[in-house]
Design brief:
One of its GO terms (molecular function) is catalytic activity. With 227 residues, this protein is mainly β. The chain is built from four helices and 17 strands. The strands form four sheets. Strands 2-1-12-9-8-15-3-4 form an eight-stranded mixed β-sheet, sandwiched between helices. The protein has a five-stranded mixed β-sheet with strand order 6-17-16-13-14, with no helix packed on it. Strands 5-11 form a two-stranded parallel sheet.
Length: 227
Amino acid sequence: MTKLSLRIDELSGPSQAEIDVARLVVAGWTGRNKEAMEHHIAELEALGVKRPAATPMFYLVSAARLTQSDRIEVIGEGSSGEAEFVLIGTEDGLLVGIGSDHTDREAETVGVTLSKQMCDKPVGNAVWRYDEVKEHWDQIIIRSYATIGGEKMLYQEGTVAAMLAPEALIAQFEQETIAPGTAMFCGTLPAIGGVRGSTDFTCELEDPILNRKITAHYDINTLEVRG
C-alpha cells in the first residue's frame, strides 16, 4: 500500500487529502482510433514486443511503485516516461491527476507486465475532482517535456480525446466505478520524434475551459549495469 498526500484543486478552493492506494492498475492500448492502435501494435511487434492479449489491457502493478518523489532510479539507459492521466478511486468520488508510466523498454521486449513492474510510477501532488471536468473532458490537454542531450523539448502533446474516456475504461475494468483505494494509469500519446530516454521528465494536464493545470516532474538517475 502507498499513501498519497494530495491537494485537491476544487472550484470551491483547494483542500488536502491523504489517500491510501492498495491497488495500482496500468491500462494499456487505450486509444479510441483502433486503426492507428493496430498500426502501433504492428510497429512494436517488429521490435520484439508481444501483441497484447486484449485491447484495452489492464496490467496489475505493485502499489509500492507509486511515488510522489521528484527523483527515480532506473537500471541502464533503456527506459522512458509516458504522460498519462491517472484516475484515483475514493469514498468521496473519483479524482483525476497526472503521472508518468515510466517503463523499461528493454524489459518490454521480454514481457509488458514485467516492464511495467520494473520502474517507479511518479504522480503529481495535485488532482481535480472528475465531476468538475467530465462535461468538457475531451478538451483536456495532456503533454510532456523531456530533457534529452541537455535540451528540454516537447515530448508529447494532444488531448485526452485520443484515449478512451474514463467511463469507458472503468466499465471495461470493473463496471460502474473504480473501487476506493485503486489508482489507474490510463494510456498515453505517441512520442514526438520517437520513444527515447531522458535525464528528467515533466508531464502536465491542462484544463483550457477552467484555466488550470496540474503537473508532475521528476529527475531520472541511471544506475550502471554491471552484468
